[in-house]
Amino acid sequence: MATGKTEKARRVRQNDLRDGNLRVKGENFYRDAKKVKHLNMYKEGKAVRNAKGEVIKAAYLQDTKAPTARVDPNRRWFGNTRVIAQDALTHFREAMGNKKDDSYTVLLKRNKLPMSLLDEKDTNESPSARILETESFEHTFGPKAQRKKPTTVASSLEELAQLTSAEQTQYEEKQELKPTLGLMGGIDTDEFSAEAKEFIFSKGQSKRIWNELYKVIDSSDVVIHVLDARDPLGTRCQSVEQYIKKESPHKHLIFVLNKCDLVPTWVAVSILFCPRLNGTMLPKFFVRIFHPPIWSICYDFGRSCSPTVGRCRFDAGRHPAVLRFGAATWCSGPL
C-alpha cells in the first residue's frame, strides 16, 4: 500500500494535529469542526452565573479581565523624535530653496519633512508691532488712561461730513468712467491699464468658471498652459501660476506656445528668450513650441527630439527648457 494514502499521512498533509479518535461534539458527515464551532458561538451569547448571580464565565468576547500591561523599558521613550540640528536645517533650507522652483526636480516623501520650518516667514514688522512704545497699556486702558476718545480722522462733525462728500464725489467719477474705454479708469492705481472695458471682456470671469478651473488643476498632475504666440503676455495667467507654485508645488506646469505659424520664426524665438516673458521663467518651466497639424505632413517640427514629454531626457550640452515638438508628437502618445 502507498504511504501517502494512510490516515496518518493525511493528518500530516492537512496539518491536523488531533488524534484520529478525537472529534468535536456535533461533528459529523454534514458538519465539520469549523462549522460546529461557528454554530456554538451563537449559543454562547449569555454569561454563566452562579447561585449568587456572580459571573463565572463571561459571554463571548465580553471578558473584562485583562493581564497587566507592561511597556518595554527603553531610553527612546524619554527622548525627542525626528529632531534636527539648526545647522542641518539651515543647510537643508538653502538646498530646498535652490530646487524649489525647479520643474525637473521632484521631492519625494514630503510628509516626512518639516515643511513648516522650511518656509521662511516674513520678517518685516507690521505697523502695529511697536504700538506699545508710543501708547502703553497703562496709559490707554485703566484709571491712568490718557485717551478719552477714539482717534479719528475728523475733529468735528462738519469736517467728517466734508470728507464723506469728497469721497462720494470721487466714487461717482470712477463709476462714470467705468463704461467708457477705460483709458482713464485706472489712473489713480499703481499701474496704468490701457485695456478696453467692454462687457464682453467680463465673460469667463465668474466665480463658477474659476471654481471649475481650480477643480481641473487640483485633479491634474501636469498642467499645460497654452500661450498665444501673437500675445503671450496677454494670454498668460499669473494667478494660476502663483496658485500652483504656492498650493501645489509638486505639480508640473508646461507652457505651450501655440499658433506659431501666424508669426515669423524670429518672433517665436524672441518670445522664448524675451526678458519680460521668460526672464526667470525659462530655467524653471517647460516651454514648448506648437504649430497646426497641417505642417506635420511636410515638416516634422522636432519630433526626433523625444517621443513624448514624459520620457524627455535632457543632455547637459543644450538648454533643457527649450524643446520643440510637432502636433503629431503631442497627439500620438499620452503625456
From TrEMBL:
Keywords tagged on the record: GTP-binding, Nucleotide-binding, Nucleus
Family the UniProt entry places it in: Belongs to the TRAFAC class YlqF/YawG GTPase family. NOG2 subfamily.
Compartments (UniProt record): Nucleus, Nucleolus
Annotated GO CC locations: nucleolus
Major subcellular site: nucleus
UniProt key word GTP-binding: yes
Single annotated GO MF: GTP binding
Matching Pfam families: NGP1NT
Residue ranges occupied by any Nucleolar GTP-binding protein 2 N-terminal domain in the UniProt entry: 41-171
InterPro entries assigned to the protein according to its UniProt record, in alphabetical order: NOG2_N_dom, P-loop_NTPase, TRAFAC_YlqF/YawG_RiboMat
Protein name: Nucleolar GTP-binding protein 2
